[in-house]
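Hey, sorry to bother you again with one of my protein questions. I've been puzzling over a protein and I'd love to understand its fold better. Take your time with it, there's no hurry, and the full record follows here:
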Amino acid sequence: MASLLITAERMITTPRGGPTRVLSPGFVRVADGVITEVGEGRPSGAPDADLRDGLLAPGLVDLQVNGFFGHDMVDADEAGWHTVVSRLPETGVTSFLPTFITAPVAVQAEALRRARDLLPGLPAGTKVLGVHLEGPFLSAKRKGAHNAGYLTDPTPEAIARLLETGLVKLVTLAPELPGALGAIRTLTAAGVLVSVGHSDATAAQVAEAADAGARKVTHIFNAQSGVDHRAPGVAVQALIDTRLSPGLILDLHHVGPAAAELVFRAAAGRVVLVTDAASSAGMPPGTYDLGGEPITMPADGPPLRADGTIAGSGLRLDDAVGNAVRLGIDPVTAVDAATRVPADLIGRADLGRIAPGAAADLVWLGPDHRARTTWINGQNVYGGGS
C-alpha cells in the first residue's frame, strides 16, 4: 500500500462538520491516494516531506480555464491537452474545468466529443472534472470578448445536444434570454451547475434564475449589469443572494482592489477564485488564440482583443490566492475560495479539503503563496516537497 506522511509548520484543514482552520504545526497521512489521518502537532516517525515554512493547502480547483501554456482548450490537440494537464500543477491547480467559449452549438458539440475521446489517454496530472461552457447563451449587450455572431437562445434542442456526452458540468448563460429559466431547470436536473454571466439581467431576473436552480455568477462585475442604486443588476444579486457564489478573477485588472474586497466582505464564504486563463497564460508577450480568434498578450496586464476588450487572463490561481492575502483577506478564506467552495459547488466533496476520506490533492504554498510542490492522489507531480 503506497503511503505518504507530510508534516507542515502551517496546514489548512476542513474537519467533517467543522469550519476550515489552520493547524500549526500539523500533519497528514495518505494511503493509496486518499487522506487517512489529519492531526495537530508532530507525529512519531520520519515524514516523507517536512514543510518548515509557507502553508500546506488543499490542491487548488479552477472552474474557468480557457487555456494555458499556449493552448486553447476548445481546439487543442492531444499534445496540447497533455501539456496543460501536465503543467497546471506548477500553479498549484490539481483539478479544473476546461472552458469552451461561445461557438455555434454544432461546433461546441463536436468539441465536447473530441474532448471525451481524448480524456482517457491523458497522462497523470491535473484532473479534468468536466467542461464549462461559457456561451453561446449570452447577452449580445454584454458579450465581452465573445463573437456576437454565434450567440443564440437556449432552446431545449440546443441544451439536449450539448448534454449528449455527459461532459458538461458548468454552463454560463444570461437568464433574461427567451427560454433561459427552462434551460436552467433542465441543466440543474441533469446535475449541471448553472452560472449567470455575460448578462444584462436585473437583480430580480437573477433571483428568478436562482429560484430555477442557478448557483453561481461568472466573473463578477465583468460583462454584466452592475451596482446601480436605482436599477440593481447581476452584480448586486450576486453579492446579496446567499444561494449564489460569485466567481472573481483576482488579477487586480479585471476587478480593482477595493471592489475585490467588497466581494469578499459582502459574499463571505461564497466567493470562488477563478483564473479565466487564456492560452496566453504562462507564456511570453505575443499573439495567441481564444475561441478561434486572435488575442494579444501584453508585457503587463491581461490579454486583449484587437478592439481593446479584455479576453481572458494570464492569471495563475496560486497568484489569485496570494493577491487576496495581500489585500488583507485571511489566508484561510483566500484558500477556501480556491479549493473547498468551488469543489462543493460542482458536487465534489472529495476535493478541495484536507480531511480524512478526501483525495490526497495537496499543494505546498511558499510564503509568497506560489506553489512549491504539488501532490495529486498522493503522488508528487511538481516540485521537491522537502
Observations:
- The chain has ten helices and 23 strands.
- The first strand starts at residue 3 and ends at 8.
- The chain has two domains: 3-57+352-382, 60-345.
